[in-house]
Write a sequence for this structure.
């Protein structure tokens, strides 16, 4: 079967046909915009990077070799401003939050990225692209730096359908210099200002603009054209629009990217996430309250292109679904036919990576196991590997202290000291452990207290 992908550029689903690479047409070059490292990454980042992690895992599952490249913006106005607030230098601050970001990705099981590319390692390539744009007449010089003239690129706006910013766009810096030829012109190279980091170059002392970083990285690693580019929906304009204008002007080759994929907005409690609203949640905070399997299941329960609402209720529902699926493993006592389930999984994922249909399929599969006793765990594990979710009960993840409490409670029950055993049950529940007494002995599962809040 053929994978079909919704392409933001064409605004329709089309069969995914990689550029010829690796000699067999099964080699994919994918670039996804990474974070600007001035703070801890939040659950909006988690939404995007878990989505692309699942997409890449699936492409590899289907036999493709995927070179997944992600940039890290480690020089930017936001980094400079935060460094001033904290008293750190920019390099130190960016290094600290780059390491924190990579730790967060490991904690989320985002393992599919082949290379992380910090922008500051591509300064020569950035300078070279700005020089080319100047020579070709697409850029001009002002007192504070070099700017891209969007009026020179006739197809500016073809990705987003517009040429001016609005309130939902992500803008790294406001390029409002006097003398700009057009309101939408954006900075390519910012001249040095006292107290700011800079690089010596043929353009003079300065630092790169935001948009030019990514095209310098992708041209260096992939060449002027490649298969797919991803990112959050709020990057479509002006960031991704600017990337197209830069690279296609330099290379003369179109399209720069064959397929554009974008994730929908994440809200918290129905509102845009904001520190001022008190609903800003970092990845680290989320993983203190919920395990990674529950979080990943919640994130993929909504299609990657659709908006998603992060709520306590949604997380609780995902936790309960996960528990139900895991408990089904115990019900399987006779061999089942996995092929129909895997075929349905592939059909769902082939249709623009339809993970909500896969989540429904998993619930149906677990229900079948509970009802009939069929052992379908190999299918469950095969799908879980692609989703990055472990459907095994977390049997060996309890601290020694909690295991000791469970064993002590078993001993109290054998001694018929029911009140003390009930007291320990309550204490275990407070610690997130549910116990169930069976004729074969005590069983337990990891739970999350309903009372925890963000």
């Amino acid at each position: 079967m053929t994978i079909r992908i919704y392409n933001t550029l064409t605004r329709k689903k089309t069969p995914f046909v990689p550029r010829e690479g690796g000699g067999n047409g099964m080699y994919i070059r994918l670039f996804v915009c990474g974070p600007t490292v001035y703070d801890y990454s939040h659950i909006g980042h988690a939404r995007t990077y878990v989505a692309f992690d699942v997409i890449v895992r699936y492409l590899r599952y289907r036999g493709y070799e995927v070179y997944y490249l992600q940039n890290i913006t480690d020089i930017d106005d936001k980094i400079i401003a935060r460094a001033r607030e904290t008293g750190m230098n920019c390099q130190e601050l960016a290094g600290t939050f780059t390491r924190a970001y990579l730790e967060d990705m490991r904690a989320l099981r985002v393992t599919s990225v082949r290379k992380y590319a910090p922008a500051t390692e591509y300064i020569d390539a950035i300078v070279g692209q700005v020089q080319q744009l100047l020579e070709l007449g697409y850029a001009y010089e002002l007192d504070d730096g070099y700017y891209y003239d969007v009026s020179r690129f006739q197809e500016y706006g073809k990705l987003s359908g517009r040429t001016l910013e609005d309130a939902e766009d992500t803008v790294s810096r406001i390029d409002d210099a006097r003398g700009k030829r057009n309101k939408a012109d954006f900075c390519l190279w910012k001249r040095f200002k006292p107290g700011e980091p800079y690089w010596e170059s043929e353009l003079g002392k300065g630092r790169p603009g935001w948009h030019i970083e990514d095209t310098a990285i992708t041209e260096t690693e992939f060449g002027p054209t490649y298969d797919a580019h991803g990112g959050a929906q709020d990057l479509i304009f002006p960031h991704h629009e600017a990337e197209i204008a830069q690279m296609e002007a330099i290379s003369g080759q179109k399209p720069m990217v064959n397929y554009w994929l974008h994730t929908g907005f994440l809200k918290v409690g129905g509102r845009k996430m904001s520190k001022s609203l008190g609903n800003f949640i970092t990845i680290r905070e989320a993983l203190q309250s919920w395990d990674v399997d529950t979080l990943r299941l919640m994130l993929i329960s909504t299609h990657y292109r659709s908006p998603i609402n992060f709520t306590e209720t949604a997380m609780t529902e995902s936790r309960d679904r996960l528990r139900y699926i895991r408990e089904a493993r115990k019900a399987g006592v006779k061999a089942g036919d996995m092929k129909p389930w895997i075929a349905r999984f592939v059909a769902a994922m082939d249709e623009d990576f339809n993970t909500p249909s896969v989540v429904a399929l998993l619930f149906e599969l677990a229900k079948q196991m509970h009802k009939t006793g069929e052992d379908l765990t190999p299918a469950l594990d095969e799908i879980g590997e692609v989703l990055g979710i472990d459907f095994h009960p977390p049997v060996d993840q309890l601290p020694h202290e909690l295991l000791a409490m469970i064993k002590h409670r078993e001993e109290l029950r054998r001694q018929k000291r029911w009140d003390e055993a009930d007291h320990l049950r309550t204490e275990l529940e407070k610690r997130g452990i549910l116990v169930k007494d069976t004729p074969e002995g005590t069983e337990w599962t990891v739970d999350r207290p309903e009372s925890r809040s963000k």
